[in-house]
Amino acid sequence: MSTHLSNFVTYMGNWEYESDENIDSVICELESFAKLEDFECGTAIDEEFQKLTTLLNIAEAERIGTDILHGIADVSLLYSIWDMAFGMGVYVVSTLGQLAVKYTATEFTDLRNKLARADIDIASNINEDVKTYIEKYKQNNRLIRARAAEGMDGRQCRLILMEFMAYLQKKGQTVTVPIFKKYAASIKRISTSNEIKDVYNALDNLNLGVKSQIDVDELMKTLKGLKLPFLAMGAKGMIQNIALRIVAWRMDISQKTIAERAQEAGITEECEPSSFEMMDAVGWFAFGVAAALTAVDVVLEIMDGITFAKQCNAMRAELQGRIKESYSSFFLNIQKSSKLYNKAIAANGTEKEIDANVTKKANTAFRTEAVLASADKSRCCVVL
Length: 384
Fold this sequence. Notes:
Layout: H1 3-13, H2 20-33, H3 42-62, H4 68-72, H5 75-85, E1 90-93, H6 96-102, H7 109-116, H8 118-126, H9 128-139, H10 141-146, H11 154-170, H12 177-191, H13 195-208, H14 213-224, H15 236-250, H16 255-265, H17 273-292, H18 294-302, H19 308-319, H20 322-346, H21 356-373, E2 379-382
């Protein structure tokens, strides 16, 4: 259960000596994300997928007798879809690269290219703010992934960056390159301290126990008494805050109980309702990028079709079905996440406890990590 906090500490510590240019790039991405509160994407998505269906019909008429998905499902296409979702690489069947070389029918070029840029085209037809965000999102994928520890994927890295910068904003900090580096340096000092291990152990003990009030109080005692190296003290509140949100995310302990026991222990600032609203913002974001991955799975699934006619019919149905739905879910969920993000960083701690149904949905989003981590081992990971 301490894995998320450990990943957070390790990952953010790796940013201490990052270049000013690269840090500014991720700050700009977050600023773009915060502008996504209000947009309508239904029309743009409908129009994009109608164009894709038309291109499929044209390609089908011109290439009767050739496997359609062997013509369009090449590595670059699937990577483009994956790049929107995780920015890590793409899981593909081991023979896909060979198939892409063998089947590159020119009749499918327009359809292949259109699918590969579908996210940018949709964003461009929504509004300039959404287009800017998607461009920055994809531009930063390699950079964000490059600082990951072994076993972390691009989605986890981006969520951690969001948590890190959101915490600073919620505390009234303007996130600049010097501020980013200052707190990243504090996190780095924490990563090498013995004291952080006490927090990891306390989280794991709570998770493995019966989660009674006494168990919760033991964690609060550890968090309150956390003694860190002098140069790491600036990040103490951040560690406390994330630990409390992990308890809410992963252990099904109510926010009310967490807040009461934290306040009793003297950890007042880090258990405000807005802290849990930030949890929901990050959760909805995770849910959106996970949903976007459906498009990759659907394409690979259709490749299993035996005949050309069945592949065409399946692809036509899925362009208006699961593939379209996955893109719609991505855009709608980043919009919802942006709204919750702005609400959380603007909050002053006086709000009522947030809706339990919203939290349940956010928790579900985080639990998809376990499902995705146990993906079919017959796939191989191509890191691009």
